[in-house]
Amino acid sequence: QVQLVESGGGLVQVGGSLRLTCSASGNIFSINVMRWYRQAPGKQRELVATIRGGGVTEYADSVKGRFTISRDNAKNTVTLQMNSLKPEDTAVYYCNVPRGFAMYWGQGTQVTVSS
Prior knowledge:
By secondary structure, the chain is mainly β. The protein is 0% helix and 57% strand. The radius of gyration is 13 Å and the shape is globular. The termini are far apart.
């Protein structure tokens, strides 16, 4: 099993920045893909960013140019740097690791952007 814990969420004004961190533990041998999702109240969970082995990244159009996903394999962490935040970014952000048959999720961290 893999355990994921997110941290770094909070309240920020429009245009501000936050840095989210996901820490993985447990059976974390050879994790490849790591992702960030978010879910706003009353909406479906959406994929925000993906990072693959070797550092290849993918972003949702809504965050491209503002968010950056990165990873530190030695520390078993994945980070989401969020800049130029908008009220539409308000959501619970989740770390996700798909591997084999499993889909592992963290507990989520709240990001609130006030205008």
